[in-house]
Amino acid sequence: MNQNLFSLIRSRITDPHRLVMETPADREYRYADLLALSARFANVLMDLGLKPGDRVAAQVDKSPEAILLYLGVLRAGGVYLPLNTGYTAGELRYFLGDAEPLLFVCRPDKLDEARAVAGDTGVACVESLGSDADGSLMARTLAAASDFPDMPRSDNDLAAILYTSGTTGRSKGAMLSHANLASNAEVLRNYWQFTADDVLLHALPIYHTHGLFVACNTVFLAGGRMIFLEKFDADRIIRQLPRATSMMGVPTFYTRLLAREDFTRERVAHMRLFTSGSAPLTADTHRAFFQRTGHAILERYGMTETNMSTSNPYDGERRAGTVGFPLPGVELRVMDRESGAPLPTGEIGMIEVRGPNVFQGYWRMPEKTREEFRGDGFFITGDVGFIDERDYVHLVAREKDLIISGGFNVYPKEVEGLIDEQPGVVESAVVGVPHPDFGEAVVAVVVAEPGVEMDERAVLEGLRDRLARYKQPKQVYFVESLPRNTMGKVQKNLLREAYRGSFGG
Q: Phi then psi for 302, rounded to 5 degrees?
């Protein structure tokens, strides 16, 4: 039996004439189009020389065609590598050099830059794909055949690689198999009770697990459809809500909606489900949303390496400040990080998970993979939390100072390294502080050389073309020295406390 994820998606298509994706610009795709266009993409990939296991990297704007490309890669037996559209050329060189894709797909206006980066990293093919069904790859696709025999894949064959930055600075490619993605989407479809009648309002990016796998794969397996917004836009969300039954978001989405007077109980009375993830949802936001709408946001917990691991119940109490229970088939435990001993109820420790959702390891990093797995197969998530007396899972912190701003991970060491390279800088420390919109904001604390006059503008200008926008500090402070403990380690907890009120937090 073919374990290709697309074969499972195909098996759930009962009516090819049903809509699967539509945009506010009135572009519509039905399931028959999904079958035909993903086949066309797969045929083009084969013409370019794709072999099973070859990688296809894509840094493209959000569009239905980008999703069809992802499906075409699956069908051809390739491995899909989505890249954040905010990554700079310097960042792309690392990802392309490490993954060694056969093909790099870029935005049409970035074609020259992409060819230069591809030439530096040995990527054989470069094509473009635009958000209006344009670009060189789309032109080739429309001329290709509309049928394709799905490439046979086994459970453990790779379907995707998603890069997740390590706290030591080097990004790691999390290898996700067809079975990882299929099992998680199937569980979420059942647990969140998605059906063919569901219409998901999709406003998430599609270059990470939340918007690409959690949202799209779950809807495909349910035979539902999506209203595909290019990005979160509160005005468009308000206009489209009456046509939807469900919405997946990050906390920032919900705080922005709550700030609007026209976001009312009546406007969402027909909605079935709101979910939140990618960053912690505050209890205040959870309560305010329920008071305004009568809906309790369903918060869940996952990460690139594990897909979704826990969820508050669909039927039952969705407890503010918790991420619910382990999903069916997923085992979760809280352990002492050093000894590996299990901790009793209520004690804070390292969260570890095991199940069919857990990734296959880090791309070309076998030693790192071994470090992050226990001998019994549990993955050490790096997240700190506890399980309460009612078995709800609570997240307390992210290990090693990870910052989550607007749902995106920011690793301080990467930002600090680039600040420290700037003329006149002795050292820097980057921390996350509360922000009313983004959850956390990136703040840099900089020590300048004696006698050197520095300002915030100069520091930010030095980062502008070297880091994605979401990684760049929203505030820069200058101090004579950084606080350290007796071992010489910078005490970032003191910095977070000192600057926590920077944005009213």
A: -160, 180
